[in-house]
Amino acid sequence: TDSTSNERHRLPLLVEGLSASALVVFDLGYFAYDLFDLLSGRFLYFVTRLKDKVVVTPVRTLADGPWYRDRIVFLGGEKSTERTAHPVRLVEFKIGEVWWRFVTNVCDPRMLPADRVWKLYAERWSIEVAFFVVKRALGAAALHCCHTNGVLSQVWCTLTVFHVLGSLRASVAEAAHWDEDEVSWELLMRRIGLYTR
């Protein structure tokens, strides 16, 4: 109901229902030391990117090479009042000339290998694709109601159609022996009539 509030403050309420050892993947909008400590304190795992210009205090090096580094660190300065209470793992990959830096509190590489950290964060992008499809292809960018019940009805109906179309998309991909990402949402929406015969 408060469209100006920061979503980061709602995340603690959402994670209350998660069981210990659940994994949360989120973007830089949720990057906050207190949130990392809250998740670690509740035995919940997370993966996110490291913000630029964040100071790290090294604890232990797990791997150090020209294209890949893996370290246990504290985020923040030397003083305990300005850093995370729990150590985290900083996983870095050099792709081209750019270092990609990820943070997780899964400190054991056997539990979460470095390549999985990168792949998990890449999967986070699927929510952005879903938002794009819901807003653009399904027309939910403009809400047509003014009261809460109407808005919620429009959102739930749009999400229901999204899931039905997602199943159709998966079926088309399977029938054609394609990866699901090779089936365009835009083309699926344009040719939906062909699939309903």
As a percent range, the share of helical residues equals: 25-40%
Give the overall silhouette: globular
What's the arrangement of strands in the largest beta sheet? 1-2-6-5-4-3
Order of helices and strands: HEHEEEEEHHHHH
Ranges with pLDDT <50 over ≥5 residues? none
Assembly state of the chains shown: single chain
Topology, number of strands? 6
Span of the ends, CA to CA: 42 Å
Strand content: 15-25%
Tally the helices: what do you get? 7
Brief write-up:
With 197 residues, the protein is α+β, with helices and mostly antiparallel strands.
Overview of the molecule:
With 197 residues, this protein is α+β, with helices and mostly antiparallel strands. It is built from 7 helices and 6 strands. The chain has helices at residues 11-15, 33-41, 114-123, 125-137, 148-176, 185-190, 192-195, and strands at 23-25, 45-49, 56-64, 68-75, 88-95, 98-104. Strands 1-2-6-5-4-3 form a 6-stranded mixed beta sheet, with helices on both faces. The model has no long low-confidence stretch (mean pLDDT 87).
Give the SSE layout.
Layout: H1 11-15, E1 23-25, H2 33-41, E2 45-49, E3 56-64, E4 68-75, E5 88-95, E6 98-104, H3 114-123, H4 125-137, H5 148-176, H6 185-190, H7 192-195
Parallel strand pairs: 1-2
Antiparallel strand pairs: 2-6, 3-4, 4-5, 5-6
